[in-house]
Amino acid sequence: MSDTEGTEPEAGQPAPGPGGPGDEQLSPEQEQMLREMEEQMRSVRVQDLVAQSVVSILNLSYRRIAKEDERDLEQARVGIEAIRGMVDVLDADSQREIKNALSQIQVLYAQAAGEGEGPAGGAAPEGGAPGPGASPGGQPPPRLWTPGSD
Q1: Any idea where the domains of the chain sit in the sequence?
Q2: Which of 4, 71, 89, 104 is the most buried (most CB within 10 A)?
């Protein structure tokens, strides 16, 4: 007698079939959902996913600087550095938009760090000098760029 004979599967877990736990039959709805997911994965370009990720990181980094109750300049710095590392794989139009938004966030970061709440020395991340598109007068940008918006 083996150690597993006579034992019941845990509540909520399907009983293993003759070929093991991976042999359960999928419902027609589940099979359709899997086919649709496969089709979506075939059409997704890695650059599109990178662009979406960069925009998410930009938005989160902005929040970590601009929202007092969420301020975490170290996390903002990590986001800025991640964006700087990923932007070069994007197409030229996306690069231009991302670099514009990034320069605005770097200005905000430098201002916030200059208030004494930032990392030691209060310096902006590498390359943090204001770039083209920086907001005049140090005002936060009216909105962040998202794919498909101009």
Answers
A1: 46-126
A2: 104
